[in-house]
């Protein structure tokens, strides 16, 4: 099942190391089947607060996303970002094709009794 690495980049300030990180990141996830879905695009906050930027990378599955994250190639460049940008990053699995949210709603109702 497709998995996603989602980053919320906050307090971004241009820096040469960040440019190097951006230049090199693609080559770190390509061997794991990763590809950008969102990168450097504008977003519109519909509710709440979301300062900063969003990055989303898709992987064929969560195992490959974790292998990318743990890979020497990615770990080598991660400090280029983390020294200059406050970031929250999660890896999350997508839902199966045909997912019906009513099933989740019913499970919640069952838990509530």
From TrEMBL:
Pfam families named in the record: DUF1330
Lineage top rank: taxon: Bacteria
Listed InterPro entries: Dimeric_a/b-barrel, DUF1330
Gene3D superfamilies in the record: 3.30.70.100
Sequence ranges assigned to domain DUF1330 in this UniProt record: 2-95
PANTHER family: BLR0684 PROTEIN, PTHR41521
Protein name: DUF1330 domain-containing protein
Provenance organism: Brevibacterium sediminis
